């Protein structure tokens, strides 16, 4: 696939990994939105997904475990004209870095947060994460997982996210649509992607038999109440699509300091003498 958004770096994900669909959908969404590569920043965390920053030809930073959101927020505040996209795994986003999710959501920082949710720690060879199903045997739960999994969509909704969606790596056409809508959304766009890990938890056929697109029903994504109810639907049928989308003032729109121009274009007015005094 030739694209200005793709680097020529050799891809080392396992053949068939759901990460490929997420990468390809992102590339297609960037192409459709016709964003200049230099105007996009990709922040990725620790895990197999984290290598995505080497494959996408935009500005990027690979951060320490669980810290995608604070770094992405800092970048957005420094230069609010940039399009900022955060990628995290389920371990990264829902275990180590969970504390950052409610705050980014309630602040409504204008960025897109894509979770590669394979329900397992893949890079460290198959341990339990907060979204691993109850009862599942993994390398860290040889007798079966005794913990109830977290519902990420409910958490994002009650925290105040203004765009909440779920995709499936086995439905790339739909994923392109979700990424495009999430990037276009003014505010915090949260997209959880069901991403099979073919090596440690291959869920392709499980999800293929169950997922259905909300866009093919008469679902209304502007209703918070309906979104909460829909987010609890998980079993024989699993909805994918946009669960909730509303417009609310973003964090940056409320910062008077950013009214005229981004922080990076402003003159730095600090009294160096005072700074040195404090430091000494
Ligand atoms: Fe993908 Fe799993 Fe392989 Fe990691 S271990 S690259 S998540 S298939």
Report on this model:
- The protein has 280 residues and is α/β, with parallel strands linked by helices.
- The protein has one domain (19-279): Rossmann fold, CATH 3.40.50.
- 31% of the residues lie in helices and 16% in strands.
- The chain has 10 helices and 8 strands.
- Strands 2-1-3-4-6-5-8-7 form an 8-stranded mixed β-sheet, sandwiched between helices.
- Helix 9 links the parallel strand 7 (211-213) and strand 8.
- The termini are far apart.
- The mean pLDDT is 97.
- Residues 13-14, 17, 19, 48, 118, 122-123, 197-200 line the site of iron/sulfur cluster.
- The site of iron/sulfur cluster has 12 residues, from loops.
């Amino acid at each position: 696939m030739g694209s200005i958004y793709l680097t020529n770096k050799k891809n080392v994900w396992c053949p068939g990994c759901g990460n490929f669909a997420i990468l390809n959908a992102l590339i297609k969404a960037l192409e459709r939105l016709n964003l200049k590569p230099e105007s996009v920043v990709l922040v990725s965390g620790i895990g197999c997904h984290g290598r995505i920053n080497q494959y996408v030809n935009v500005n990027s930073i690979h951060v320490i475990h669980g810290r995608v959101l604070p770094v992405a927020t800092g970048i957005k505040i420094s230069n609010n004209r940039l399009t900022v996209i955060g990628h995290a795994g389920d371990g990264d986003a829902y275990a180590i870095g969970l504390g950052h999710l409610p705050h980014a959501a309630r602040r409504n920082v204008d960025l897109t947060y894509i979770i590669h949710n394979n329900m397992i720690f893949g890079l460290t060879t198959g341990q339990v994460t907060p979204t691993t199903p109850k009862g599942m045997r993994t390398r860290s739960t040889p007798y079966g997982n005794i913990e109830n999994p977290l519902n990420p969509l409910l958490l994002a909704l009650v925290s105040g996210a203004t765009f909440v969606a779920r995709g499936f790596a086995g439905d790339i056409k739909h994923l392109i649509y979700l990424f495009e809508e999430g990037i276009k959304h003014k505010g915090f766009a949260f997209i959880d992607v069901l991403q099979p890990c073919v090596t440690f938890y291959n869920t392709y056929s499980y999800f293929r038999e169950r997922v259905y697109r909300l866009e093919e029903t008469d679902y209304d994504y502007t209703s918070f109440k309906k979104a909460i109810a829909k987010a609890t639907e998980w079993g024989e049928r699993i909805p994918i699509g946009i669960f909730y989308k509303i417009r609310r003032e973003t964090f940056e729109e409320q910062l008077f300091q950013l009214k005229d121009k981004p922080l990076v274009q402003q003159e730095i007015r600090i009294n160096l003498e005072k700074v040195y005094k404090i430091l000494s």
